[in-house]
Design brief:
The protein has one helix and ten strands. Strand 7 and strand 8 form a beta hairpin.
């Protein structure tokens, strides 16, 4: 059996980087994914005829080279495709209550849009679609070692 997760969504906050005492760099960000809300098997629509969307938030963690590249090139609002695995944690807080958490450990991150700060550099490359494309010439791909390459 394998633990594989693939998420496509928008970055909810600028990535945050920290370093452990052992020197491991850890980059964290949140990712918003959306899907249409269903009622009795049909897509719900609002009073204007637009689809009602349900959004879920995911905590993403990147290590070392991948984390460094994500921190340098990603910002809030960018569309990314994250390949990784689910990691569950359990800890006891200061009051003695057991707490549980879930995060996605990223193994690969594909950029599906450019940062808004890069719009002035080459505006025709900025993705303005509402739907998330899974393969575009202008996407960046980041592997576990942090190598950067164009996808498709």
């Amino acid at each position: 059996m394998q633990n594989i997760v693939i998420l496509a969504g928008n970055i909810g906050q600028n990535p945050e980087v920290r370093t452990t005492q052992g020197g491991t760099k850890i980059t964290n960000f949140t990712l918003a994914t959306s899907r249409p809300r269903l009622s009795e098997g049909r897509v719900m629509r609002d009073e204007n005829g637009y689809r009602v969307m349900d959004t879920e938030w995911h905590r993403i963690t990147c290590f070392n080279g991948l984390g460094k590249t994500v921190a340098e090139h990603c910002e809030k609002g960018m569309k990314v495709l994250v390949h990784g695995r689910i990691h569950y944690t359990k800890w006891t807080d200061a009051t003695g209550t057991d707490r549980y958490g879930c995060e996605i450990i990223a193994e690969k991150v594909d950029f599906l849009s450019r940062p808004k700060s890069a719009e002035s550099e080459n505006p025709e490359l900025v993705d303005r679609d509402d739907e998330i494309p899974f393969c575009k010439e202008r996407g960046l791909s980041l592997g576990p070692g942090g190598e950067t390459r164009w996808v498709c």
